[in-house]
Description:
Blueprint: E1 11-15, H1 20-31, E2 35-40, H2 43-53, E3 57-61, H3 67-81, E4 86-89, H4 105-132, E5 136-140, H5 153-173, E6 179-185, H6 191-197, H7 200-209, H8 212-215, H9 220-232, E7 237-240, H10 244-249, H11 251-263, H12 266-277, H13 280-283, H14 307-310, H15 333-344, H16 352-358, H17 361-374
Parallel strand pairs: 1-2, 1-4, 2-3, 4-5, 5-6, 6-7
Helix pairs in contact: 1-9, 3-4, 4-5, 7-12, 15-17
Amino acid sequence: MADGYDLNGKVALVTGAARGIGFETARQMQVRGASVVLVDLDAAATEDAARRIGQRTLGVGADVTDRAQIEAAVARAVEEFGGLDVAVANAGIAPAPGTTRGIEIDEWEQVIEVNLLGVWRTARAALPQIVERRGHLVLVASVYAFVNGVMLSSYATAKAGVESLGRSLRIELAPYGAGASVAYFGFIDTKMVQEGFADPLAERLGESLLPAIGRRRLQPSAAGAAIVAGVEERKPRIIAPSWWGVISTLRGVLNPLLDRQVSGNKEIAAIIREADSISASVAAEPGAAPATGAQPEEASPAAEPSEAAASEPASSPAGEASAREIGPPDGFGWLAASAIVWRSGPGQVLQEEDQRLIGPARGALEPDLAGAVAA
């Protein structure tokens, strides 16, 4: 397979393209010389988006939860432009934040239908053309493919599934000279994200889980540019902001530590109880207590030490910080800490501010970082 992939003269199909990341991806591919088929649920809005981009575009209304509709969209692309070289499975939705216990069953399953099975249907419909024309697939996942999906379990489950599907496709397409990328984005300033953070619980959860750098939003144009560059370079992974790549690389080291810290975070425990207290699903459970808001923090099992933790010494010998003691008090402060360690590189001198932030975390991570760099 060639290292570069020229979009000029190619035909691309992008789902979820009426706005946001999908629109910007389609627009920037058209600027590169590709003919682009925009696909979205609202036919009128999609056709309007195609007109705004200009020539060599086609807007098609289709529902990615309907296999026949997405297959028809691919057929339209082939009929209109003579084939299909690139497919970007971007369509997705986000639920309101809530626990797996509290979310409505139909709402949880609908996220899987759109965000995972919709991606699968798009990829499957495009595959014959992608193989024949040695083309490229992009499956849009999220950093939620590898960070804890507390209060967004349906979204995180779907995105982890997309990642796994993309990895499988990458290997299966290689013998035919075709390729596949998985795109992982942090928070992009789309309408979906804006509406999600309008929920007070979502805002509190984000502040408790993520440092400011993790909540910073990129513009859809930046995400679109990342996808276009990823296709042109046949990248296996497209990650934006790029520092999330550090977390992905170190997920096997960081995730057990993060999960342990988050499970003991009293503010997150309070948010979970508050979400359940206002959930219609929980209220409908037999014998459920009336909703009275968040319970006292002391009542949370998540805030209590585990049996293993209770059996460990209260303190570690000097210079031997335990995993529990490393890092700032907020659970996902580890994200910022690991990014700083990676940025500085093993053996380099950290700035005073960085030293204050991560403390002993650098020493704990350096062996794993050295191994990751060597790999």
